[in-house]
Amino acid sequence: LRRRGEEPDLLGRTVVVSAGGTREHLDPVRFLGNRSSGKQGYALAEVAAARGARVVLVSANVALPDPAGATVVRVTSAEDLRRAVLQHAPGADVVVMAAAVADFRPVAVASHKIKKDDAGGVPDPIALERTADVLAEVVAARAAEGRRQVVVGFAAETGDASGSVLDHGRAKLARKGCDLLVVNEVGDGKAFEVDHNEVVVLGADGSFIEVPEGSKRAVAEAVWDSVVPLLHP
Ligand code: CTP
Ligand code: CA
Protein backbone atom coordinates (compact mmCIF):
# COMPACT_ATOMS: atom_id res chain seq x y z
CA LEU A 1 0.00 0.00 0.00
CA ARG A 2 1.14 3.48 -0.90
CA ARG A 3 1.38 5.96 1.92
CA ARG A 4 0.13 9.38 0.88
CA GLY A 5 2.76 11.59 -0.66
CA GLU A 6 5.30 8.78 -0.86
CA GLU A 7 4.99 8.25 -4.58
CA PRO A 8 5.43 11.07 -7.12
CA ASP A 9 2.19 10.11 -8.87
CA LEU A 10 1.92 13.52 -10.57
CA LEU A 11 5.43 13.40 -12.01
CA GLY A 12 5.49 14.69 -15.59
CA ARG A 13 2.02 16.23 -15.22
CA THR A 14 1.18 19.90 -15.49
CA VAL A 15 -1.58 21.25 -13.30
CA VAL A 16 -3.25 24.64 -13.13
CA VAL A 17 -4.80 25.57 -9.79
CA SER A 18 -6.77 28.76 -9.19
CA ALA A 19 -6.97 30.01 -5.61
CA GLY A 20 -8.22 32.91 -3.55
CA GLY A 21 -11.05 35.30 -4.23
CA THR A 22 -11.47 37.77 -7.05
CA ARG A 23 -12.10 41.49 -6.53
CA GLU A 24 -14.27 43.66 -8.75
CA HIS A 25 -13.40 47.31 -8.41
CA LEU A 26 -16.04 50.02 -7.91
CA ASP A 27 -13.49 52.82 -7.88
CA PRO A 28 -9.72 52.99 -7.30
CA VAL A 29 -10.06 52.17 -3.58
CA ARG A 30 -13.16 49.98 -3.27
CA PHE A 31 -14.13 46.56 -4.54
CA LEU A 32 -16.71 43.80 -4.25
CA GLY A 33 -14.91 40.75 -2.91
CA ASN A 34 -15.47 37.55 -1.00
CA ARG A 35 -14.13 35.71 2.02
CA SER A 36 -11.90 33.15 0.33
CA SER A 37 -8.45 33.09 1.96
CA GLY A 38 -6.84 30.90 -0.70
CA LYS A 39 -5.66 28.35 1.87
CA GLN A 40 -7.32 25.33 0.24
CA GLY A 41 -6.07 26.27 -3.24
CA TYR A 42 -2.55 26.87 -1.93
CA ALA A 43 -2.61 23.48 -0.19
CA LEU A 44 -3.67 21.88 -3.49
CA ALA A 45 -0.78 23.56 -5.30
CA GLU A 46 1.75 22.62 -2.63
CA VAL A 47 0.66 18.98 -2.54
CA ALA A 48 0.64 18.71 -6.34
CA ALA A 49 4.21 20.04 -6.46
CA ALA A 50 5.26 17.63 -3.70
CA ARG A 51 3.76 14.78 -5.74
CA GLY A 52 5.86 15.75 -8.75
CA ALA A 53 3.63 18.05 -10.83
CA ARG A 54 4.63 21.21 -12.61
CA VAL A 55 2.23 23.68 -10.99
CA VAL A 56 0.84 26.97 -12.24
CA LEU A 57 -0.99 28.67 -9.38
CA VAL A 58 -3.34 31.45 -10.46
CA SER A 59 -3.69 33.41 -7.26
CA ALA A 60 -6.37 36.03 -6.64
CA ASN A 61 -5.67 38.36 -3.72
CA VAL A 62 -4.11 35.86 -1.35
CA ALA A 63 -1.90 36.80 1.60
CA LEU A 64 0.07 33.56 1.87
CA PRO A 65 3.68 32.64 1.03
CA ASP A 66 4.23 31.13 -2.43
CA PRO A 67 3.99 27.33 -2.24
CA ALA A 68 7.31 25.58 -2.85
CA GLY A 69 7.72 24.53 -6.46
CA ALA A 70 4.75 26.43 -7.93
CA THR A 71 4.81 29.20 -10.52
CA VAL A 72 2.50 31.88 -9.14
CA VAL A 73 0.48 34.12 -11.48
CA ARG A 74 -1.20 36.95 -9.57
CA VAL A 75 -4.59 38.27 -10.67
CA THR A 76 -7.20 40.62 -9.25
CA SER A 77 -10.56 40.44 -11.04
CA ALA A 78 -12.63 37.58 -12.43
CA GLU A 79 -11.67 38.67 -15.95
CA ASP A 80 -7.93 38.66 -15.04
CA LEU A 81 -8.31 35.19 -13.57
CA ARG A 82 -10.22 34.00 -16.64
CA ARG A 83 -7.43 35.16 -18.96
CA ALA A 84 -4.69 33.56 -16.87
CA VAL A 85 -6.50 30.23 -16.50
CA LEU A 86 -7.45 30.05 -20.20
CA GLN A 87 -3.87 30.92 -21.16
CA HIS A 88 -2.37 28.09 -19.11
CA ALA A 89 -5.14 25.46 -19.45
CA PRO A 90 -4.27 24.17 -22.96
CA GLY A 91 -1.05 22.50 -21.81
CA ALA A 92 -2.42 21.21 -18.53
CA ASP A 93 -3.30 17.65 -17.57
CA VAL A 94 -5.48 18.97 -14.73
CA VAL A 95 -7.28 22.24 -14.04
CA VAL A 96 -8.52 22.79 -10.50
CA MET A 97 -10.81 25.77 -9.95
CA ALA A 98 -10.52 26.35 -6.22
CA ALA A 99 -10.84 30.14 -6.51
CA ALA A 100 -13.98 31.96 -5.47
CA VAL A 101 -14.74 33.82 -8.69
CA ALA A 102 -17.13 36.78 -8.68
CA ASP A 103 -20.43 36.05 -10.40
CA PHE A 104 -21.20 39.75 -10.93
CA ARG A 105 -19.17 42.90 -11.44
CA PRO A 106 -20.08 46.57 -11.55
CA VAL A 107 -21.09 47.65 -15.04
CA ALA A 108 -18.98 50.80 -14.64
CA VAL A 109 -15.83 51.41 -12.62
CA ALA A 110 -15.40 55.02 -11.44
CA SER A 111 -12.01 56.39 -12.44
CA HIS A 112 -11.90 58.62 -9.35
CA LYS A 113 -12.77 57.80 -5.76
CA ILE A 114 -16.51 58.09 -5.17
CA LYS A 115 -16.84 61.01 -2.69
CA LYS A 116 -19.44 61.91 -0.09
CA ASP A 117 -21.33 65.16 -0.57
CA ASP A 118 -22.24 67.55 2.28
CA ALA A 119 -25.97 67.00 1.86
CA GLY A 120 -25.87 63.45 3.27
CA GLY A 121 -26.66 61.91 -0.10
CA VAL A 122 -25.79 58.39 -1.25
CA PRO A 123 -24.58 57.33 -4.70
CA ASP A 124 -26.82 55.63 -7.20
CA PRO A 125 -27.35 51.89 -6.67
CA ILE A 126 -24.50 49.84 -8.14
CA ALA A 127 -25.54 48.26 -11.43
CA LEU A 128 -24.04 44.78 -11.90
CA GLU A 129 -23.44 42.51 -14.85
CA ARG A 130 -22.51 38.83 -15.06
CA THR A 131 -18.92 37.68 -15.30
CA ALA A 132 -17.86 34.75 -17.49
CA ASP A 133 -17.96 31.26 -15.96
CA VAL A 134 -14.30 30.20 -16.17
CA LEU A 135 -14.90 26.58 -15.19
CA ALA A 136 -17.57 26.19 -17.85
CA GLU A 137 -15.23 27.76 -20.42
CA VAL A 138 -12.42 25.35 -19.51
CA VAL A 139 -14.81 22.41 -19.91
CA ALA A 140 -16.07 23.77 -23.25
CA ALA A 141 -12.53 24.39 -24.56
CA ARG A 142 -11.47 20.90 -23.53
CA ALA A 143 -14.33 19.43 -25.57
CA ALA A 144 -13.75 21.74 -28.54
CA GLU A 145 -10.05 20.91 -28.69
CA GLY A 146 -10.35 17.24 -27.76
CA ARG A 147 -8.02 17.63 -24.78
CA ARG A 148 -7.49 14.77 -22.38
CA GLN A 149 -7.70 16.85 -19.25
CA VAL A 150 -9.19 16.39 -15.80
CA VAL A 151 -11.25 19.36 -14.64
CA VAL A 152 -12.10 19.86 -10.97
CA GLY A 153 -14.57 22.38 -9.58
CA PHE A 154 -15.23 23.49 -6.05
CA ALA A 155 -18.54 24.46 -4.50
CA ALA A 156 -19.34 25.98 -1.17
CA GLU A 157 -22.98 25.28 -0.50
CA THR A 158 -25.57 25.72 2.18
CA GLY A 159 -28.69 23.59 2.38
CA ASP A 160 -31.93 25.46 1.81
CA ALA A 161 -35.62 24.88 1.09
CA SER A 162 -34.85 23.70 -2.45
CA GLY A 163 -32.35 20.99 -1.45
CA SER A 164 -29.52 19.74 0.76
CA VAL A 165 -25.85 20.62 0.35
CA LEU A 166 -25.37 17.41 -1.64
CA ASP A 167 -28.44 17.97 -3.83
CA HIS A 168 -27.01 21.33 -4.82
CA GLY A 169 -23.57 19.77 -5.35
CA ARG A 170 -24.86 17.04 -7.67
CA ALA A 171 -26.86 19.55 -9.68
CA LYS A 172 -23.84 21.84 -9.96
CA LEU A 173 -21.53 19.00 -11.06
CA ALA A 174 -23.97 18.12 -13.85
CA ARG A 175 -24.42 21.77 -14.84
CA LYS A 176 -20.69 22.50 -14.95
CA GLY A 177 -19.68 19.34 -16.79
CA CYS A 178 -16.45 18.88 -14.81
CA ASP A 179 -15.08 15.48 -13.70
CA LEU A 180 -14.99 16.12 -9.98
CA LEU A 181 -16.72 18.63 -7.73
CA VAL A 182 -15.34 19.20 -4.25
CA VAL A 183 -18.26 20.28 -2.11
CA ASN A 184 -18.11 21.85 1.29
CA GLU A 185 -20.82 23.08 3.55
CA VAL A 186 -20.49 26.70 4.53
CA GLY A 187 -22.02 28.76 7.29
CA ASP A 188 -21.49 28.57 11.09
CA GLY A 189 -17.79 29.43 10.69
CA LYS A 190 -17.21 26.44 8.39
CA ALA A 191 -14.70 26.47 5.54
CA PHE A 192 -13.82 30.14 5.23
CA GLU A 193 -10.57 31.51 6.63
CA VAL A 194 -10.00 28.44 8.77
CA ASP A 195 -7.18 25.87 8.59
CA HIS A 196 -9.33 22.76 8.49
CA ASN A 197 -11.98 21.63 6.10
CA GLU A 198 -14.44 18.78 5.57
CA VAL A 199 -15.53 17.97 2.04
CA VAL A 200 -17.27 15.50 -0.20
CA VAL A 201 -15.71 14.75 -3.58
CA LEU A 202 -18.45 14.04 -6.14
CA GLY A 203 -17.49 12.31 -9.39
CA ALA A 204 -19.21 12.67 -12.76
CA ASP A 205 -19.29 8.85 -12.78
CA GLY A 206 -21.58 8.98 -9.71
CA SER A 207 -18.79 8.33 -7.21
CA PHE A 208 -18.94 9.94 -3.81
CA ILE A 209 -16.00 10.21 -1.42
CA GLU A 210 -16.44 11.70 2.02
CA VAL A 211 -13.20 13.24 3.24
CA PRO A 212 -13.26 13.46 7.03
CA GLU A 213 -12.56 16.77 8.72
CA GLY A 214 -8.86 17.46 8.52
CA SER A 215 -6.26 20.02 7.56
CA LYS A 216 -6.61 21.71 4.17
CA ARG A 217 -3.42 19.84 3.28
CA ALA A 218 -5.10 16.50 4.08
CA VAL A 219 -8.10 17.53 1.99
CA ALA A 220 -5.70 18.45 -0.85
CA GLU A 221 -4.08 14.99 -0.67
CA ALA A 222 -7.54 13.39 -0.89
CA VAL A 223 -8.51 15.54 -3.89
CA TRP A 224 -5.32 14.54 -5.76
CA ASP A 225 -5.99 10.90 -4.80
CA SER A 226 -9.32 11.27 -6.65
CA VAL A 227 -7.70 12.97 -9.65
CA VAL A 228 -4.84 10.51 -10.25
CA PRO A 229 -7.01 7.55 -11.41
CA LEU A 230 -8.69 9.86 -13.95
CA LEU A 231 -5.44 10.91 -15.66
CA HIS A 232 -4.78 9.50 -19.10
CA PRO A 233 -1.99 6.91 -18.98
N1 CTP B 1 -16.53 29.49 -11.15
C1 CTP B 1 -15.90 29.97 -12.29
N2 CTP B 1 -16.27 31.18 -12.81
C2 CTP B 1 -17.26 31.90 -12.24
C3 CTP B 1 -17.91 31.41 -11.08
C4 CTP B 1 -17.51 30.19 -10.56
O1 CTP B 1 -15.01 29.31 -12.80
N3 CTP B 1 -17.59 33.07 -12.78
C5 CTP B 1 -16.10 28.18 -10.61
C6 CTP B 1 -15.55 28.21 -9.22
O2 CTP B 1 -14.15 28.41 -9.22
C7 CTP B 1 -15.90 26.82 -8.70
C8 CTP B 1 -17.18 26.47 -9.44
O3 CTP B 1 -17.23 27.35 -10.58
O4 CTP B 1 -14.93 25.86 -9.04
C9 CTP B 1 -18.43 26.61 -8.67
O5 CTP B 1 -18.55 27.92 -8.19
P1 CTP B 1 -19.87 28.34 -7.46
O6 CTP B 1 -19.81 29.78 -7.09
O7 CTP B 1 -20.16 27.33 -6.39
O8 CTP B 1 -20.95 28.08 -8.63
P2 CTP B 1 -21.81 29.04 -9.51
O9 CTP B 1 -22.01 28.33 -10.81
O10 CTP B 1 -21.22 30.40 -9.58
O11 CTP B 1 -23.21 29.04 -8.79
P3 CTP B 1 -23.76 29.86 -7.49
O12 CTP B 1 -22.70 30.80 -7.02
O13 CTP B 1 -24.99 30.53 -7.97
O14 CTP B 1 -24.06 28.76 -6.48
CA1 CA C 1 -20.73 31.68 -7.74
Automatic annotation (TrEMBL):
A molecular-function term among this protein's GO annotations: phosphopantothenate--cysteine ligase activity
Cofactor details (free text): Binds 1 FMN per subunit.
Pathway(s) the chain acts in: Cofactor biosynthesis; coenzyme A biosynthesis; CoA from (R)-pantothenate: step 3/5; Cofactor biosynthesis; coenzyme A biosynthesis; CoA from (R)-pantothenate: step 2/5
Region (Phosphopantothenate--cysteine ligase), start-end ranges: 15-233
Domain of life of the source: Bacteria
Catalysed conversion reaction: (R)-4'-phosphopantothenate + L-cysteine + CTP = N-[(R)-4-phosphopantothenoyl]-L-cysteine + CMP + diphosphate + H(+); N-[(R)-4-phosphopantothenoyl]-L-cysteine + H(+) = (R)-4'-phosphopantetheine + CO2
Cofactor: Mg(2+); FMN
Domain DNA/pantothenate metabolism flavoprotein C-terminal: 11-228
Binding-site residues for CTP, renumbered to this chain: 103, 113, 154, 172, 176
Keywords: Decarboxylase, Flavoprotein, FMN, Ligase, Lyase, Magnesium, Metal-binding, Multifunctional enzyme
Family: In the C-terminal section; belongs to the PPC synthetase family.
Function as written in the Swiss-Prot or TrEMBL entry: Catalyzes two sequential steps in the biosynthesis of coenzyme A. In the first step cysteine is conjugated to 4'-phosphopantothenate to form 4-phosphopantothenoylcysteine. In the second step the latter compound is decarboxylated to form 4'-phosphopantotheine. Catalyzes two steps in the biosynthesis of coenzyme A. In the first step cysteine is conjugated to 4'-phosphopantothenate to form 4-phosphopantothenoylcysteine, in the latter compound is decarboxylated to form 4'-phosphopantotheine.
Protein name, per record: Coenzyme A biosynthesis bifunctional protein CoaBC
